[in-house]
Structure formats: structure tokens, C-alpha cells
Specification:
Blueprint lengths: L8 E8 L4 E3 L22 H11 L3 H8 E5 L6 E5 L12 E2 L2 E2 L7 H5 L2 E5 L10 E8 L10 E3 H8 L1 H7 L1 H13 L6 H12 L1 H9 L3 H4 L4 H9 L1 H16 L15
Antiparallel strand pairs: 1-8, 2-9, 3-4, 5-6, 7-8
Length: 261
């Protein structure tokens, strides 16, 4: 049975600044509560997987096998994963219950952004000057009819997408660069490395420590010790390597310290 709520997203053509005000409230008492958590194509980012697999206390391989579906991004040609919806009539997210999201503190970035989208005018300025925001409104969402007032800034502070933006920055830059290049072919080996580094952190750790990788890329010893145990540092290291070495984009900042920026 298809959800009684149509799955339509409307982008409201209005540029918002951080101080722009809007009214919105999502809460268990609202008639549409959790209706947005089914039948969705939710692309996962590297940091989404890190947070969720840690919360569920499972390996990245186990998370990928149980909770994701592979997909190739159209026009970019890079492999990504989406969150696998339930295989029954509900097509609901595996983490939703009538009481809400069971992994709420570690929900993916996409679940945090709604209803505020974020864009930049120039690909070089991913996080700063040329940024702007806009509304994304789903037909079934009644949250806009509620009375709680926000600014874009206070909403983002509440939902914490900034940390996700920072952690995924090198990955996002690779996607944007690939999109700007159009249909440039990427080798099968590069696609496999992109997938492993982006999503399979446990396999990437084995790859780094059980191959000549560290010797080949002359990694400083303090960084080696950091990435040996710390998934966040390893992910940042891997995404930076993807961006600068595999895809040849200019380095922006040292990789393993970005979380603390
Ligand atoms: S992860 Fe949580 S917030 Fe996101 S779709 Fe699933 S239940 Fe909803
Ligand atoms: S549809 Fe809107 S108000 Fe309703 S649960 Fe989803 S985000 Fe909240």
C-alpha cells in the first residue's frame, strides 16, 4: 500500500540568509508525525555511516549489508549508498517507530537539513561567503503550520548539520568537482577505492595498515597513531586522500584535525 501522504518535495524559490525567520515545529503530536520517514531515496554520506554504525555497535561491512542499497549517482558516475527502506508495504525507514526515530541523535545529515536546504554559488567556497539557504517543503508536512519561530541559524544550531558538513567536506568537494567535469570516465579501481573510503571504514583501516599504503604515502607517525584507533580521524584522512590523490583536487586544510575547527 502506498503511503496516503504523497511523496513530493517542493523547493521554495526564495533565498534565505542565516538571520531569515520562519515558523516550523516537528513533534509527536502532529498529524504527519513520522510520515516523512518512509519511501524515501536517502543518500548516505560517509559521516552518516560512521555515526550510525557506532550507535548500532556493528561493523561498517555489517551496516552496509543490512541497511543500505547501492546506487550510482546520475551525471557524476560515482557509487553511493541509500538507506534501505523496509521490504514490506510500509516501505518505512528501518529506524522509525510510532514514537519517532530510534537513532535520532545519530540520524543522517538529510534528516537534519529538512526543511532548510543549503547551497553555495561557487564550488571553491563550500562553507563560507557565497552560501545561501532555501526552503524544501514536502506536501504532507504540517510543520510549517505550527507556531514555533526560528531563524535559519538557530534551526541549524538545533539540528547540528554543521558538524556533518565539516566532516563530509572533502567528499562533497569530490562530488561537486566530478559533476562540474561532466561525463569523464573514472577507472573501476578508482570507483572501488572511492566506495571503500567513503563507506567501509573498517575495510579501509585494514587496507591502510595491512598494505604498503602508509609507506607509499609517507604518513607522519603521529597521524598514523591517530587513525589507527579513531574512526573519525581515519575517515577524514581517507576522504582527504581521495580528494587530493585519487581525484587530484587541491588540498584545502590538514585532514585529521578538521573536526575540531
Ligand atoms: S533515520 Fe530517523 S529521521 Fe531519518 S528517515 Fe529514518 S527514522 Fe526518519
Ligand atoms: S512531515 Fe514535517 S512535521 Fe511531519 S514529522 Fe516529518 S518533518 Fe515533522
Amino acid at each position: 500500500m502506498k503511503s496516503e501522504f504523497p511523496d513530493k518535495k517542493e523547493i521554495i524559490p526564495q533565498k534565505l540568509a542565516r538571520e531569515s525567520k520562519f515558523k516550523f515545529k516537528c513533534h509527536p503530536g502532529i498529524a504527519c508525525f513520522t510520515k516523512c520517514c518512509s519511501d524515501i531515496n536517502l543518500i548516505l554520506t560517509p559521516y552518516d555511516i560512521l555515526r550510525m554504525k557506532k550507535r548500532l555497535n556493528i561493523s561498517s561491512e555489517a551496516f552496509l549489508a543490512k541497511y543500505t542499497r547501492p546506487q550510482t549517482l546520475e551525471k557524476i558516475g560515482l557509487p553511493v549508498v541509500t538507506l534501505k527502506m523496509m521490504d514490506d508495504d510500509s516501505k518505512s525507514c528501518p529506524f522509525v517507530t510510532p514514537k519517532g526515530c530510534t537513532i535520532y541523535p545519530d540520524r543522517p545529515a538529510t534528516c537534519r537539513y529538512y526543511p532548510i536546504g543549503f547551497a553555495t554559488l561557487k564550488e571553491e567556497n563550500i562553507t563560507t561567503k557565497d552560501e545561501f539557504f532555501f526552503f524544501v517543503k514536502e506536501d504532507h508536512c504540517l510543520g510549517f503550520e505550527e507556531d514555533q519561530e526560528w531563524t535559519v541559524q538557530s534551526w541549524r544550531e538545533d539540528q547540528e548539520p554543521e558538524l556533518y558538513d565539516r566532516m563530509n567536506r572533502d567528499w562533497t568537494e569530490v562530488l561537486i568537482k566530478k559533476q562540474s567535469l561532466g561525463a569523464v570516465e573514472t577507472s573501476e579501481k578508482s570507483l572501488q577505492l572511492f566506495f571503500m573510503v567513503s563507506y567501509d571504514i573498517d575495510r579501509f583501516r585494514r587496507f591502510v595498515f595491512q598494505s604498503p599504503f602508509l609507506k607509499k604515502y609517507q604518513t607522519p607517525s603521529d597521524l598514523v597513531e591517530e587513525i589507527r584507533e579513531d574512526d573519525d580521524a581515519l575517515m577524514l584522512f581517507g576522504l582527504h586522500w581521495l580528494k587530493t590523490t585519487l581525484f587530484g583536487l587541491a588540498p584545502a586544510k590538514p585532514a585529521a584535525s578538521e573536526k575540531s575547527l
